[in-house]
Design goal:
The structure holds 2 protein chains of 2 kinds. Chain A contains 15 helices and 11 strands. Chain A is an alpha+beta fold. In chain A, the strands form 2 sheets. Chain A has a 6-stranded mixed beta sheet with strand order 1-2-6-3-5-4, sandwiched between helices. In chain A, strand 1 (5-8) and strand 2 form a beta hairpin. In chain A, helix 1 (46-53) crosses helix 4 (113-132), helix 10 (274-282) packs across helix 11 and helix 11 packs across helix 15 (387-397). The longest helix of chain A is centred in the first third of the chain and has 20 residues, at 113-132. Chain A is globular and about 60 Å long. Chain B is α+β, with helices and mostly antiparallel strands. In chain B, 42% of the residues lie in helices and 18% in strands. Chain B has helices spanning 62-70, 80-88, 114-127, 132-149, 153-165, 177-182, 185-195, 211-220, 274-285, 291-299, 330-346, 351-367, 372-384, 391-401, 404-414, and strands spanning 24-27, 33-38, 44-51, 93-98, 103-110, 202-207, 247-251, 257-265, 303-312, 317-326, 421-426. Chain B is globular, with a radius of gyration of 24 Å. The chains are: A alpha+beta, B alpha+beta. At the A-B interface, helix 2, strand 5, helix 3, helix 4 and helix 10 of A face helix 2, strand 5, helix 4, helix 10 and strand 10 of B.
Chain lengths: 412, 430
C-alpha cells in the first residue's frame, strides 16, 4: 500500500506526494508522456536522444549535473517505447535544488549545438555497446520488426538504425521539446522525507509559472490482428543457437493483462516454472529459458525466449516449447500452481515498495495509466485471476497464427 | 504570477554526518549469534547466511562458484524440482551469490511464510547432496554461458585485467574453458563439506524481525552449536606470479568497440590512503561530472560511459579505470585518459571542484544508509571486512578533510604512469 496525495497545477502539471519519514532523503520523479512510440518512422531513436539532451543545460542553468552533485544528489533517466522518465534523489534538506533544476529544464532548454553533436556520438556508442558489439545484441531489433507491421512498437527505443541518430537536427530537438515537454504532458512525484505543504509551496514557486503547453493528441496506428505465423531465421557469430517466440497480447489497461502476465509466470518465471523444469532439466534441450510480458501501454508482446544446448535444432526446441503450451491449452492448472505465481507476484510487489524511488516511479506510471490508485489495486487484480482465465488465455493468445518466431543461429 | 529567481541556486545544506546503526547481536538457542536489524515498513524479511567460500578459497575459482550454485540442486530428502517448488510456492526468492572472499545464501520472504521457507534454506545448507545428473546439466549450461560471455569485449577485459593486476595475490587465479570441464563432483562435494558449515556462518536478518521471527529462527537452528572459530575472514594463499605493470593488447578482429582497462594493485580498507583514494577516484571517474566522463563522454563523445575508482577485497585492493570506446577512437581515448591522470599528478584540483566531489560523496553516503537493505549492507561490510564501528564517521571525516595538495600527493604516489597496467581488448585501429 502506497499512500499519496494528489493535486494539479493550473498549467496542467499533475503532482503526487508520497511521504516516508523513515528516510533522510527525498526524490523527485518526473515522467514525460512521450516515448519511442511517438516518433516518426524516419526519425526513430529520437525520444531517447532527446533524453540525453535534457542534461545538456537548460535556459537559465548551464549545467544540470553540477549543482545537483553539489547538493549531494544523484540522478538518472530512462526512455522506453511508452515514456521518458527522469529521477533524482538528494538529502531532503536540499529538495529545493531539485525543484530549481527540474523546473528550469521544463521551462526551456539551452539548445546547445555542441551538446547535440556530442550526445549524438554518445548515443551511437550506446547503440554499438548494447546492440551491435554484444552477442545476441540485435535480437530485439529483429523481433520488433517481425512482430509489428504497423504500430510504432516496431522499432526499439534506441532507434531502427544509427543513421537516424546521425541525422537528428536542432530543429527536430526544438519541435520535440515544444510538443512534448510541458507541464500538462508531465507527472511529478515527490517522495521521501517531505510534507505535502512543503511540496505545494515549492510547486507554486517553481513549476506554476511555466506556461501551459498544447495538449498532445496521440493517434497511433493500431497493429492489425496477425493472421498467420511468421518465422525469421538469421545467422550470426554466436556460440549457441537461440529461439524467441512472441505473441501479441493485451495492453497494460486491459483486465486480461493480469491473466496473461500470470500465464507467462507459469510458463517461464524461475526454476520451478514449467519451461525450466521440462526444457532445461528434464529434457536438457535448453541452457536457459524464460517467459515474460513486455508490459507496454498499447498491446505488447508475450515472450518465450531460450538458448539451446549444443546439438539441439531450433525446430526441435520450437516443438518442445509448443508441447508445453499445448499442455496448458488442454488442462486446467491446479490451484497450488496458480497460488504459487500469485504469491510470487505479491512478494515482488511488496519488495518493490521497499525503496522510495521505486514507489515514486510506480505512482507516476499509475497516474499516467489514468488512475494513480491502480498502484494499490494491482494485487487485488492479480488475486482475482482464476485457473479458467489462465486456460482461456493459453488458448486465445498462444496460437500459431498469433506467433512470430525468431531462430537466431550460430554460423556453422 | 511571481517569477522565481532562476539564476541563483537555492541555498544548500552540506551533509556532515551519517548515522551508523549497529545490528543487534542475538544469541540463538544453539549458541550461535545472528545479527538482526529490525527496521522497515513492509512485512518482509531478508535472511542471509554468509560463508568464507568465495572464489579465492580454491585454486580453481570455478569450484567455489559452482558449489554455491549446486546447493539448491537436491538434498537427502528432496529433488531440485521439489526445492524450487517448495520455495516458490510461498512467493519467496532464494539468492545464491559469491564474490572473491565470500559466498552466500539469501532468503527474501514475506514474513508470514518465514517459518516454511526457512526450513527449506536450512535443509539445503545442511543436506544438499550435489546429485551428479544435475551437475552435468549445470556444467554444460555454465560453460555455454561462459562461451557467450567470451564474445563480449567487456567481459574478456574485466576478467583478464583482474588476473593481471592481482596475479600473485589470493585473487589472481586464472580460469578458462578447461577449468569448467576439469571439475569433478567429488571436488564440489568436498568443497561444500569444508566451507558450508552453519556453525561458521555469518547470519544476518533484517526487515520486520519481531520476537516471533527471532524465535522461529532460533528454533530452526537450535541444533547448531558454535565452532571453535565461528565466522572469520578467509585467509587464502596467493595464486600465480606477481606480474610487472605492462601494456597489453588483445585483438578481437570483429570488434566495433574496444574495452579499455587501466589500473594497478593497491591496498585494503585498512590502509591510511584508502579513504583519500576513494575521493581521488571519484574526482577522476566516480560520478557523472567526473574528469573522465566530462572529457571522454561529454566533450568527445567517444563512449557511452567511463568509470574509475578504488576497490578492496579482504586482503588486497586495486584501482581501475574502465570503459568501452568506439574502435576507431581507441588510441585517442587512451591518450585522453593518461592526460587526465597526469593532470591529477601535476595540477592542484580547484577547491570548487573538490568541494563538489565532497558534497556528492557525502550525499551518496547518506543514500547508502537509506532503507533497511542498504543499512544492513553497511553493517555487513563492517563484519566482513573487520571494520571498526566508527568506520563511517572516519570515512565522513576523511572526505571532509581532503585537500587539493593531499590529492596531488596521492596521485604522485599511486597513479604514476609506468606503475599502471593497461589492457585493451578489441581493435586499436580500424
Amino acid at each position: 500500500m502506497i499512500n499519496y496525495e494528489r493535486f494539479t497545477l493550473e498549467n496542467g502539471l499533475r503532482v503526487l506526494v508520497h511521504r516516508d519519514d523513515t528516510t533522510p532523503m527525498a526524490c523527485m520523479n518526473i515522467l514525460y508522456d512521450v516515448g519511442a512510440r511517438d516518433e516518426e518512422p524516419e526519425k526513430t531513436g529520437f525520444a531517447h536522444l532527446f533524453e540525453h539532451l535534457m542534461f545538456g543545460g537548460s535556459v537559465n542553468i548551464p549545467n544540470y549535473d553540477t549543482p545537483l552533485q553539489q547538493a549531494g544528489g544523484e540522478n538518472n533517466a530512462f526512455t522506453n517505447n511508452d515514456i521518458t522518465n527522469y529521477y533524482l534523489t538528494l538529502p531532503a534538506a536540499n529538495l529545493e535544488t531539485g525543484f530549481w533544476l527540474e523546473s528550469d529544464r521544463m521551462l526551456s532548454l539551452a539548445f546547445s549545438e555542441k551538446s547535440l553533436e556530442v550526445q549524438r556520438n554518445v548515443v551511437i556508442e550506446e547503440f554499438k555497446q548494447r546492440y551491435l558489439n554484444q552477442p545476441y545484441g540485435d535480437e530485439w531489433l529483429l523481433l520488433r520488426e517481425l512482430a509489428y507491421t504497423t504500430h510504432p512498437y516496431r522499432w526499439a527505443t534506441i532507434g531502427k538504425e544509427i543513421a537516424h541518430i546521425e541525422q537528428a537536427q536542432m530543429s527536430d530537438v526544438r519541435a520535440f521539446f515544444q510538443r512534448f515537454y510541458h507541464p500538462a504532458n508531465a507527472i511529478l512525484v515527490v517522495a521521501g522525507n517531505v510534507t505535502i505543504e512543503q511540496v505545494k509551496v515549492l510547486c507554486n514557486k517553481w513549476f506554476a509559472p511555466i506556461p501551459a503547453g498544447k495538449t498532445v493528441m496521440r493517434n497511433l496506428p493500431p497493429e492489425p490482428v496477425q493472421k498467420e505465423s511468421r518465422l525469421l531465421r538469421v545467422k550470426r557469430k554466436v556460440p549457441a543457437d537461440a529461439i524467441h517466440k512472441v505473441y501479441h497480447m493485451d495492453g497494460r489497461l486491459s483486465q486480461r493483462y493480469f491473466s496473461q502476465d500470470l500465464l507467462s509466470d507459469i510458463l517461464g518465471r524461475g526454476t520451478s516454472s514449467r519451461l525450466y523444469r521440462s526444457l532445461v532439466k528434464d529434457q536438457a534441450l535448453f541452457s536457459e529459458v524464460n517467459a515474460y510480458v513486455t508490459g507496454n501501454i498499447d498491446p505488447g508482446l508475450f515472450v518465450v525466449s531460450g538458448r539451446l544446448r549444443n546439438g539441439v535444432s531450433p525446430e526441435q526446441a520450437d516443438a518442445a516449447i509448443q508441447a508445453e503450451i499445448q499442455h496448458l491449452q488442454q488442462h486446467l492448472i491446479d490451484s497450488q500452481e496458480l497460488e504459487k505465481v500469485k504469491n510470487k507476484a505479491e512478494s515482488s510487489h511488496v519488495f518493490g515498495e521497499m525503496a522510495v524511488l521505486n514507489k515514486a516511479m510506480s505512482l507516476a506510471f499509475a497516474e499516467l495509466l489514468g488512475d494513480v490508485n491502480l498502484v494499490n489495486l494491482e494485487l487485488e487484480k492479480i488475486r482475482a485471476v482464476s485457473a479458467a482465465d489462465i486456460y482461456r488465455e493459453a488458448n486465445s493468445l498462444l496460437t500459431e497464427n498469433n506467433c512470430s518466431t525468431l531462430y537466431y543461429c550460430k554460423e556453422s | 504570477m511571481m517569477h522565481p529567481d532562476r539564476l541563483t541556486p537555492p541555498p544548500m545544506v552540506a551533509v556532515e554526518h551519517v548515522a551508523f546503526q549497529e545490528a543487534e547481536k542475538v544469541l540463538l538457542a544453539g549458541g550461535i549469534p545472528a545479527y538482526v536489524l529490525r527496521l522497515g515498513t513492509q512485512e518482509i524479511l531478508r535472511l542471509e547466511f554468509i560463508f568464507g567460500a568465495g572464489t579465492a578459497s580454491h585454486p580453481n575459482p570455478l569450484v567455489p562458484s559452482m558449489a554455491n550454485a549446486m546447493l539448491q540442486e537436491g538434498t537427502t530428502k528432496h529433488t531440485a524440482a521439489e526445492i524450487a517448488d517448495g520455495i516458490d510456492r510461498f512467493g519467496a526468492f532464494l539468492e545464491l551469490d559469491f564474490d572473491k572472499d565470500y559466498a552466500s545464501v539469501t532468503l527474501y520472504t514475506l514474513k508470514r511464510y518465514f517459518s516454511q521457507t526457512l526450513d527449506w534454506v536450512v535443509e539445503l545448507l545442511e543436506e544438499s547432496t550435489f546429485p551428479e545428473p544435475e551437475w552435468l546439466i549445470m556444467q554444460a549450461n555454465k560453460l555455454e554461458k561462459f562461451r557467450i560471455n567470451c564474445e563480449k569485449v567487456s567481459f574478456l577485459a574485466g576478467k583478464q585485467f583482474q588476473e593481471m593486476i592481482l596475479s600473485g595475490t589470493p585473487y589472481g587465479a586464472h580460469f578458462s574453458e578447461k577449468d569448467y570441464l576439469g571439475i569433478t563432483i567429488e571436488e564440489l562435494r568436498a568443497f561444500r563439506k569444508r566451507h558450508y558449515n552453519l556453525s561458521d556462518a555469518l547470519i544476518l536478518l533484517c526487515g520486520w524481525a519481531d520476537d516471533e521471527v527471532i524465535k522461529t529462527l532460533s528454533s530452526a537452528l537450535v541444533h547448531v552449536s558454535p565452532s571453535v572459530d565461528g565466522f572469520k575472514q578467509p585467509n587464502a594463499p596467493a595464486y600465480g606470479e606477481l606480474l610487472k605493470p605492462a601494456k597489453h593488447y588483445v585483438e578481437k578482429a570483429d570488434a566495433i568497440q574496444s574495452a579499455i582497462r587501466i589500473g594497478r594493485r593497491l591496498f585494503t580498507r585498512h590502509h591510511t590512503d584508502y579513504f583519500p583514494m576513494k575521493v581521488l577516484g571519484t574526482v577522476l571517474g566516480g560520478y557523472f561530472g567526473s574528469r573522465l566522463m566530462s572529457n571522454i563522454r561529454e566533450d568527445k563523445g567517444y563512449t557511452y560511459g567511463i568509470g574509475a575508482g578504488a576497490l578492496a577485497y579482504v586482503s588486497e585492493g586495486w584501482f581501475y579505470i574502465s570503459t568501452e570506446v568506439g574502435a576507431e577512437v581507441t588510441s585517442d581515448a587512451l591518450r585522453e585518459i593518461y592526460h587526465e591522470i597526469r593532470l591529477l599528478r601535476e595540477v592542484l584540483i580547484p577547491e570548487e571542484e573538490l568541494s563538489l566531489v565532497k558534497n556528492y560523496m557525502l550525499g551518496g553516503l547518506l543514500k547508502s544508509f537509506d532503507g533497511t537493505f542498504e543499512r544492513m549492507e553497511r553493517i555487513k561490510g563492517n563484519l566482513l571486512y573487520g571494520l571498526p564501528s566508527d568506520y563511517y564517521t572516519q570515512y565522513t571525516e576523511a572526505i571532509l578533510s581532503a585537500t587539493p595538495l593531499q590529492m596531488r600527493e596521492l596521485a604522485n604516489r599511486w597513479l604514476v604512469e609506468d606503475q599502471l597496467t593497461e589492457l585493451v581488448v578489441g581493435k586499436q585501429k580500424s
